[in-house]
């Protein structure tokens, strides 16, 4: 499947950000700006490497060495470019040792730094790589920046400071953390929106899915990545998870555990495909949890995995919808037409993989295999893999996009699910939110200014 996705991108979309597998041409969205930055190449590199697809890895290496240039007049998403490009380049560097990946990651990070020039230091959502001018998404509450965006820079930026010896990256993300720590949190929850001019929350919406998700993930992973030295991050994670459990996690009438969203003063009994990553996160955070609740969090991870599997199993295609409800007799099923699509997302498979690593319960491989077969049957087209618009329809139509995260995450997690645990052991590697593995930093002898935890 990886070969099919790569070969078609190579043939029809090379250098473009993504592939349109039916039209057989390049594809892009506004997150990558208007330049051909080869997002699929950068995102896929470490998967190719891990799978032993050496010729393909070499093709990617050569394109990056010769063509990847960030001096372009293009306005990109700081978050997306960080998780896919900086994360992808750093992982490729750590795995292969090729200097060019590190050099490109540092060049790109330099281009993102102007985004932090706001009155509060909370970065803009978008930055022009040439002019350095930043701004926020028009749709975000009252000019706000997004929690899952400015809160998902920590891992990559700490690695950049570690690799370069320049504390600038580290200081930027620690400043964000300090600011968040000082703020009041309604019910102990972090709202999704924060205004970078005023430093005040926007609308009080809270989500462990879109707009919130990877902020929580990065608190836990900052601790893991620091060899468990960054106890401040662990405490923030524990506090956040306690509030989430109290206010957002419920059981449906049919006994399915779900994570809802806090909106306009009440709990929306709806869960997104994106939220399904949390099963894996709870399992990953079980060890080291407060009050020795490891068993509890592993169980919670298993319950979320089960619910998300049900969201797949209750469809015609055996692929999960974008969002599903637990309301009015509906259980783990999408109600609105515009929530019935599957765009090759990884989160459910990601959770299967973490649960497999921590329990070795064969059902997770079984569920992963079901998903593999469904993707291969319904998303494979002759020009690559495409998302589908309605997982409840027996004759689905395609969205004609092969997302770069399909190669970075979905196929990587599937491959790892069927590999031995000594391939990228979780004691040594921490996966960024785009599934790019970064090594645990044993920083005892390294000086990073600003935080004694890193001395
Ligand atoms: C990926 O880019 C990352 O996993 C991100 O954190 C959330 N969304 C997509 C995949 O669905």
Commentary on this structure:
- There is one protein chain.
- The protein is an alpha+beta fold and 455 residues long.
- It has one domain: Glycosyltransferase, CATH 1.50.10.
- 45% of the residues lie in helices and 11% in strands.
- The strands form eight sheets. The protein has a three-stranded antiparallel β-sheet with strand order 3-4-5. A three-stranded antiparallel β-sheet has the order 12-13-14.
- Mean pLDDT is 96; it is low at 445-455.
- The structure holds 1-deoxymannojirimycin.
- 1-deoxymannojirimycin is lined by residues 214, 274, 345-346, 405, 409, 433-434.
- It is an enzyme of class 3 (hydrolase).
Name of the CATH class: Mainly Alpha
Bound molecules: 1-deoxymannojirimycin
The level of helicity is 40-55%
Number of helices: 15
Radius of gyration: 21 Å
Task: Report mean pLDDT, rounded to a whole number.
Answer: 96
Summarize the main sheet. 3 strands, antiparallel
The percent range for strand residues is 5-15%
- Structural class determined from secondary elements: alpha+beta
EC number: 3.2.1.-
Function: Involved in the maturation of Asn-linked oligosaccharides. Progressively trim alpha-1,2-linked mannose residues from Man(9)GlcNAc(2) to produce Man(5)GlcNAc(2).
Disulfide bonds: 276-308
Cofactor: Ca(2+)
């Amino acid at each position: 499947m990886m070969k099919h996705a790569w070969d078609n991108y190579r043939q029809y979309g090379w250098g473009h950000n993504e592939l349109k597998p039916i039209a057989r041409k390049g594809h892009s969205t506004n997150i990558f700006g208007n330049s051909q930055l080869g997002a699929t190449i950068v995102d896929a590199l470490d998967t190719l490497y891990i799978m032993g697809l050496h010729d393909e890895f070499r093709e990617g290496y050569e394109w990056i060495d010769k063509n990847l240039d960030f001096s372009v007049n293009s306005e990109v998403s700081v978050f997306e470019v960080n998780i896919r490009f900086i994360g992808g380049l750093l992982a490729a560097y750590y795995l292969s040792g090729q200097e060019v990946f590190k050099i490109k990651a540092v060049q790109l990070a330099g281009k993102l730094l102007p985004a932090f020039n706001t009155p509060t230091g909370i970065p803009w959502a978008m930055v022009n790589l040439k002019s350095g001018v930043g701004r926020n998404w028009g749709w975000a509450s009252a000019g706000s920046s997004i929690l899952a965006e400015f809160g998902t820079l920590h891992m990559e930026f700490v690695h950049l400071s570690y690799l370069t010896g320049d504390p600038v990256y580290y200081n930027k993300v620690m400043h964000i953390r300090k600011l968040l720590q000082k703020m009041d949190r309604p019910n102990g929850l972090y709202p999704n929106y924060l205004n970078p001019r005023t430093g005040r929350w926007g609308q009080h919406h809270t989500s462990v899915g879109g707009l919130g998700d990877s902020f929580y993930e990065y608190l836990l992973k900052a601790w893991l990545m620091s060899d468990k030295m960054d106890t401040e991050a662990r405490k923030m994670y524990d506090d956040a998870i306690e509030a989430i459990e109290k206010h957002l996690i419920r059981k449906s009438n049919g006994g399915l555990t779900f994570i809802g969203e806090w909106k306009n003063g009440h709990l929306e009994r709806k869960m997104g495909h994106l939220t399904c990553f949390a099963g894996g996160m709870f399992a990953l955070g079980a060890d080291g949890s407060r009050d020795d609740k490891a068993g509890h969090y592993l169980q919670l991870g298993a319950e979320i995995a089960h619910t998300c599997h049900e969201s797949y199993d209750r469809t015609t295609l055996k692929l999960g919808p974008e969002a599903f409800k637990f309301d009015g007799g509906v259980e783990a099923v999408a109600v609105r037409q515009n929530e019935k699509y599957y765009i090759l997302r990884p989160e459910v498979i990601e959770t299967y993989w973490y649960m497999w690593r921590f329990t070795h319960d064969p059902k997770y491989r079984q569920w992963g295999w079901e998903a593999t077969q469904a993707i291969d049957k319904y998303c494979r087209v002759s020009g690559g893999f495409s998302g589908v618009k309605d997982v409840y329809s027996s004759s689905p139509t395609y969205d004609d996009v092969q997302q770069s995260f399909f190669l970075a995450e979905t196929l990587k997690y599937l491959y790892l699910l069927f590999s031995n645990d000594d391939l990228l052991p979780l004691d040594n590697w921490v996966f960024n939110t785009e599934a790019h593995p970064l090594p645990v930093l044993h920083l005892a002898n390294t000086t990073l200014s600003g935080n004694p935890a890193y001395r």
